[in-house]
Amino acid sequence: MEDELSTLFKALGHPIRRRILDILKQSAKTTGELNDYFPEVSRYAIMKHLTILEEAHLVVVRREGKFRRNFLNVIPLQEMHNRWVGKYMQTAANSLLSLRSVVEEKGGDFSMAVTEKAQVFRIEQEVFMNAAREQVFKALTERAGDWWEFRLAPQGVPSQFTFHPVPGGQFIEKWGDNEGAVWGQVYYVNAPEEIRLYGHLGMQGAVHSAYTYRLLEKDGGTLLQLSHTASGTIEENWEQEHSEGWKHLLGTLLKNYVEQN
Question: Record's SUPFAM superfamilies (predicted)?
Fold first, then answer.
């Protein structure tokens, strides 16, 4: 953990790297697009800065044809926040609604500008967990109800979660006699390496949403990679709310669950 923090602080120690993170906070960029923001800096230097950010897990890279697209990974920053600040703001992280209020109180600085037309957002995050891949996969699926904090049930009404990690299986929340909500429908499984689902994840209206968990064995533990894409009539702040929500669910709740059990 201390070595990870040293790498993180090193990555944050240069103003260009901090500026890169500010840019990626708005949207993912290719390496060439990032280089355009720094006309006084060589492409080689930008690539070196990106390598340092990637080593600190602050940037997640996805190859798209001949392009390298860089995404901000907020989870290491959340882990640092939890260590020194989290206990003072614990009540502010209990739900997506409270996370939304935090963003709005900051004047929307963390949000992408969104028009009323159809939009697309894509979230890429990864978090390392000191647990076996099979354990993490089971926690993500069969044990999801033990740590998944967000609920669609009416306030004050208890609900139960089930998740069947088979093609056609559902991640579903039920309450009452015949009430409930589907958080995801499984359309691909390669246990314990990957599982893909589609589902609205709390969004309403004409929206298509899909998310994927990939689990890689690394350094005696598991590197969990999340990819979440949504398209359609996307309301303002949905991208930020879901990014913060995933960060809290995977980087805090799931990580603590698998490492403490």
Answer: Bet v1-like, Winged helix' DNA-binding domain
261 residues of the chain, pLDDT tens digit each: 556 777 888 888 899 999 999 999 888 899 999 999 999 899 999 999 999 999 888 999 888 888 889 998 887 877 776 665 454 444 434 444 444 555 555 555 433 333 334 478 889 999 999 999 999 999 999 999 999 999 999 989 999 999 999 999 999 999 988 899 999 999 899 999 999 999 888 888 778 899 999 999 999 999 999 999 998 888 888 888 999 999 999 999 999 999 998
Three-class DSSP category at 27: coil
Pairing mode, if any, of strands 59-64 and 29-30?
unpaired
The residues, any chain, with a CB within 8 Å of residue 131's CB and separated by 6 or more, are 139, 221, 222, 258, 259
The residues, any chain, with a CB within 8 Å of residue 44's CB and separated by 6 or more, are: none
Question: Which stretches does DSSP call E strand in 116-157?
Answer: 119-129
Is the domain covering 2-72 a CATH 3.30.70.260 domain? no
From the DSSP assignment, how many helices (H) and strands (E) are in the chain?
Answer: 9, 10
d(CA 242, CA 224): 17
Domain range summary for the chain, segments of one domain joined by +: 2-72, 110-260
- Beta-carbon contacts of residue 176 (< 8 Å; ≥ 6 apart): 157
Q: How far apart are CA 88 and CA 222, in angstroms?
A: 29
